[in-house]
Amino acid sequence: ILGKLSNKPCIIFYEDRNFMGRHYECMSDCADMHSYMSRCHSCRVESGCFMVYDRPNYMGNQYFFRRGEYGDYMSMMGWRDSIRSCRMIPMYRGSYRMRIYERENFGGQMYEMMDDCDSIMDRYRMSDCMSCHVMDGHWLMYEHPHYRGRMMYMRPGEYRSFREMGYGGMRFMSMRRIMDSWY
């Protein structure tokens, strides 16, 4: 397989469970997988890390995949629909820095993070995080403490309102750096 031989990020999507049926090999972002296959029920990550989404254009529920085999990811994640788009997460080596805010538009209490946080409530006594600014690195934010529940991929940039991004009913309670050792 090309991705494995060249050591470039590579994810292979299969129409059916357990790597059966037609497949599509992807080495970069793909905003709409429907043009390549009508359904996707398993995948194999040969190298790199990817976020997959259950809607086109990097929308909807997200799930993080790193090198490995996912023969029946729908049961594993509890999804009812298949993967519709994916985003390659670039390898990053450097410092990590993110500011989290209690309210939208960088309002309320602010805390700067440089490492993983398994509970913002325990560490900062912060019951909600509604905006953030990622200065360095790539991060995963989780709905529940201890890196559980639904997640959202955060790359460097300003995120003024999670509600306006479609995460209005969701609270982010833990954050983890995407480390180069995961690749």
From TrEMBL:
Keywords, in A-Z order: Eye lens protein, Repeat
Single GO BP term: lens development in camera-type eye
Domain Beta/gamma crystallin 'Greek key': 48-90, 137-179
Pfam families attached to this UniProt entry: Crystall
Domain of life: Eukaryota
GO molecular function: structural constituent of eye lens
The protein's role, per its UniProt record: Crystallins are the dominant structural components of the vertebrate eye lens.
Similarity-based family: Belongs to the beta/gamma-crystallin family.
Protein's name in the database: Gamma-crystallin M2-like
